[in-house]
Amino acid sequence: MPISFLMPALSPTMTEGKVARWHKKEGDPVTSGDVVCEVETDKATMEVEAVEEGTLGKILVPAGTEGVAVNTVIALILAEGEDKSALSDFTAAPTPVVKSAPTPKPAEPKAPPVAKVEGARLFSSPIARRIAAQGGLDLAGVKGSGPHGRIVKRDVEQALASGVRPVKTPSIATPSAEPTLVPHTTMRKVIAKRLTQSKQTVPHFYLTVDCRIDALLAARKEINAHAPDGVKLSVNDFVIKAVALALRKVPEANVSWTDDAMVHYNTVDISVAVATPGGLITPVLRHADHKGLAELSAEVKELAGRAKDGKLSPEEYQGGGFTISNLGMYGIDHFAAIINPPQACILAVGAGVEKPVAVDGQLAVATVMSCTLSVDHRAVDGAVGARFMGAFRTFIEHPSLMLL
Residue 153, CB half-sphere, CA atoms under 13 Å: how many? Predict the structure, then answer.
């Protein structure tokens, strides 16, 4: 009897996947530990290894098939001593595939309701254009008397009555390129579903603080100048450390909401948003409050690199009680992020910008970083969120406190 090769459950929440690629072809020998295929989940593309030995007898689900339910038989492996005749005795249930709705064809672009002449826009009413077309009148020679110079019916009638027939300049039609349709990846579909659900069902509120980071920048410069080779701290490394310590100081913010109970996390595990070609993914820094800046920096770089290559394992991006999203490196001064369920908080970090500030009653210039906390009001009240942001700002503005 052939051995069934199943669509694996690569994470506790996975219900379906996409067979992205087959590494083996029919007739190839299969040894335990061999990579047989790649499966694309909502977070990454992962290699699937064989646990049995034999020969790949038949591929039941071709590469590129999406929505294949977990535990579906996707291939058959012939055990030692079996030949292809054994495949005829195997009857597989139809492959459960979730079919996506067909992508609608984009509508043909419609001409705007205006007349044009040599690139200029002439505003005119529909009836004015119709009468002008019937009378062979070029609207370019007609002065509009309507609002904002719009050419109206009476303007065209007066022009026709005067006998003026400006000669129309032949127009050269500009070819319009068809838009390119790029099919959604599994990751992009899941991101869209989860963020829509979050925005529609989670009662967000927002808390913003401006942090002066001149002391942090000075500390970073000094550390990088004297640190061992390979250690180069970023502002984001300090942000992660400050969040971790603030969560330790205000553990009421390290929670999640469920319908039955409030989940209080006993460890500080921080998710960090990383942009990949397929969309955002949030690798998790475990026990971040117990790690130094250099260790956090190295771990973030390593996880982000493998995230962009789609090489993270499920345990590396699942879980986490709090998320940080930093767009400061892209020059964004301020933004508010959407909460990543089931978490209750996500911190949006902007760029450090020089601004005028008051210092002891005197005007001065400081580098200010705007940070906005998006909060699930079911789990975290405003006072708790404010205490957390106060603790976070204290650590950011006094980075030496992170060493205690």
Answer: 2
Cα 264 from Cα 256, distance rounded (Å): 7
Question: CA–CA separation, 100 vs 191, rounded Å?
Answer: 16
Kindly name the residue from 23, 184, 334, 377 that is annotated as catalytic: 377
398 is catalytic: no
In this prediction the pTM is 0.66
**How far apart, in whole angstroms, are the C-alpha atoms of residue 303 and residue 283?**
6
pLDDT in tens, 39-49: 988 777 888 88
Question: 3-89 adopts what CATH topology?
Answer: OB fold (Dihydrolipoamide Acetyltransferase, E2P) (2.40.50)
Which CATH architecture best describes the domain 114-161?
Irregular (4.10)
Q: What is the percent of the chain with per-residue pLDDT over 70, rounded to a whole number?
A: 88
β-pairing, 270-272 vs 322-326, is parallel
Apex 205 CA angle, 200 and 211, nearest 5: 135
